Amino acid sequence: MSLIAAGIHVSLGRKEILHGVSVEARAGEITAIVGPNGSGKTTLMRCLTGELACRGRITLDGRDLAAMPPEEQARRRGVLPQAAALSFPFTVAEVVRIGLEARGERADGLVPAALAAVDLPGFSGRLYQELSGGEQQRVQLARVLAQVWQPVDAEGPRWLLLDEPVSSLDIAHQLTVMRLAADYARRGGGVVAVMHDLNLTALFARHLILMSGGRVLRQGRPDQVLTDETLSLAYGCRLRVNTAPESGIWVLPHAAA
Amino acid sequence: MVAILPELRRPARLEGDRSHRARRLGLVLALVLVAVTLASLGWGASGTSLTRAVSDLAAGRALAVQDRVVLMDIRLPRALMGIFVGASLAVSGAVMQGLFRNPLADPGIVGVSSGASLGAIVAIVLGSALPAGIAGFLGWYLVPVAAFCGGWITTILLYRIATRRGRTSVATMLLAGIALGAIMGAVSGILVFRASDSELRDLTFWGLGSLAGANWPKLAAAVPIMALALVFAPWLARGLNALALGEAAAGHVGIRVQRVKNLAILTVAGATGAAVAVSGGIGFVGIVVPHLLRLASGPDHRYLLVNAALLGAVMLLIADMVSRTIIAPAELPIGIVTAIMGGPFFLWILLRNRGVLDL
């Protein structure tokens, strides 16, 4: 069961952003998309979510994504956007419910559970607009989680597609969110996340896609992708990859250029 | 026995869920609307009283001729017009705000009403130039349909201009609204120059904003369009709720975004166009009503759209009673009443949201 993109080309205006990208993410593990700014990570993610029309073919568990109706897509996968400003004074509970109610399901029972999962218990009555950026990001994650609460249903695995899920979180909540994603994958769901923090990625992801200049520079296990030469080439700066007995791989930048 | 009792109680309400409050508010508003409608029927410049008419009817007596004319041909169509126009303006405002994801969007402010006015003026001035067959066929429908088309085209233009790559810019929307409004106003002005004296009289009365011209043929022409838009609006509720997350996220939760946007634009154009066609420039209902309701019971469009229709009708009926009694026996155009109440309210919303809205 997997999410496969084959030969993806994307052009915005005259500029081609993705030049024939082919990637695969499997259910049951976290797949991380990493790479420098402007390498095409978010564009690739927007193709995987079906938001951006692209040349090439994307299949979700063997089915052509472009041919799937939006309601069906919404049942198979939830998408966490990078930033989410809300224009009206919704409460946290109302925001978390939107995802399910959009297709006519009731979600009241799931709201407290989803909020507890992102470490926001007791927040359901608060106004979304009055929360901090990190809290808002976690409310959005709770909304996405409520949308695809069971990692596996009768039709197969469900997917969490997360665009920089930890970008505005403190270190403790980065761990909360990554553990939540890992647990979702452990229970059979699929997780694809755009990540910046290579160490966090190394800790949690089992499959890495390293993007550079609109192409896949390398994909594979963390120890295959996170090497001195590959990373230094991708990011254009000197990086050293170390292994520690307990925590696995960690990446250290050089102070001198 | 005692131990299991708590289990039998209804589960505690979800904190932050305001749907029960919104439903209760809707019930209260419906009752208030009934009361205000009765008051509106019983209150006016002539001495006709509703209680006398009702007691006449109850006693099996025919109504006095004057009572029948005042009630059936003047006050009743006027009250119905007030209800439909008020509901349409408030619902257009709420739908437009949901579509643009902005509490300041209002058909009157961003030029949709000007577009509808232009359509109506074109129909009034150039209608006489139409072949008699077509004009006769369209009859009373000519002005509402033309206003609908004007509002529709303006809304589409506005959305195209203000939205880039799925994001709507508030500043662009408001500024484009000013520009479009100015252009429509200028074209309307040119048409007014061409108008004959009798057409000019029609235009002046109509432009001030008034329910005074309400009669059964006008109702029959405009109400179907407004009713269709009002019945349609609640179907948009889930889509508009999801749109609050942004267009991309709305698509991700399974909403057919383009369809919701098209229907929302049609709804706004239909409701605003028909309301403007029969009542002229009545402003601020579309911005005041949804804002008050969001304060009272939250922005969930499933309740907001229904409650906006009720509160819009109530407010317009009250404004109409003020307009026809405050300087009785003369009548103050209702557009002036709503502007005096709504203008300061709009400024208040602006001040409250200064920090939140990135203008």
Description:
- The complex is a heterodimer of chains A (257) and B (359).
- Helix content of chain A is 32%, strand content 30%.
- The model of chain A has no long low-confidence stretch (mean pLDDT 91).
- Chain A is globular.
- Chain A has 257 residues and is of the alpha/beta class.
- In chain A, helix 4 (110-117) crosses helix 5 (133-147).
- Chain A has a single domain (2-217), classed as 3-Layer(aba) Sandwich (Rossmann fold).
- With 359 residues, chain B is an all-alpha fold.
- Chain B has a single domain, classed as ABC transporter involved in vitamin B12 uptake, BtuC.
- Chain B is built from 16 helices and two strands.
- The longest helix of chain B is centred in the N-terminal third of the chain and has 36 residues, at 65-100.
- In chain B, 50% of the residues are buried.
- Residues 1-10 of chain B have low confidence and may be disordered.
Strands, helices and their partners?
The complex is a heterodimer of chains A (about 260) and B (about 350).
Chain A (H helix, E strand, L loop, with lengths): L1 E11 L2 E12 L3 E5 L6 H8 L6 E6 L2 E2 L5 H7 E4 L11 H10 L8 H8 L15 H15 L4 E2 L2 E2 L1 E5 L7 H16 L3 E5 L3 H7 L2 E6 L2 E6 L1 H4 L2 H8 L3 E6 L3 E6 L4
Parallel strand pairs in A: 3-10, 3-11, 6-9, 9-10
Antiparallel strand pairs in A: 1-2, 1-4, 4-5, 7-8, 11-12, 13-14
Helix pairs in contact in A: 3-5, 4-5
Chain B lengths: L4 H4 L10 H24 L7 H9 L6 H36 L11 H15 L5 H7 L3 H21 E2 L2 E2 L1 H25 L2 H11 L8 H17 L4 H7 L3 H6 L4 H23 L5 H13 L3 H25 L8 H19 L7
Antiparallel strand pairs in B: 1-2
